[in-house]
Amino acid sequence: MVQPLSGEYAARREVLEKIPFPIGYGVETSHLLDLYDTFGLEAFAQTDLDRRVHRNQTTNALGKMSFGILQTFFNRLHAQGKIDQMPDMETFYRRFEVEDGIYNQIAQEVIEEERPPMIEINGYLNRNK
Asked: What's the CA gap between 67 and 38, in Å, rounded?
């Protein structure tokens, strides 16, 4: 995959209904792992959108995002039985800023939650009744 974290993807409804949907930065990572585990690599395709325009993010924002993606990545691999033991990760992303030669630690909580597959939600199943 050329841009697996681009936020630009499409899937058939019946596919997305069957997989959990993370709330946060790890949605693409989770979907790639779930779809690969369920359908295999032959279910994937990609196309060149020619031009991408994204707003730039600060290094601090990218650090927080990558921490959330790692949380999702390890949680998904553990749920799929691909790793036996989870790494000792807290929910706090820690970074350091220096001012006048003094380093200050800044901790920011990042919690990656997810919704269950849509076909497991009664309100969704009963939407046309």
From this structure: 25
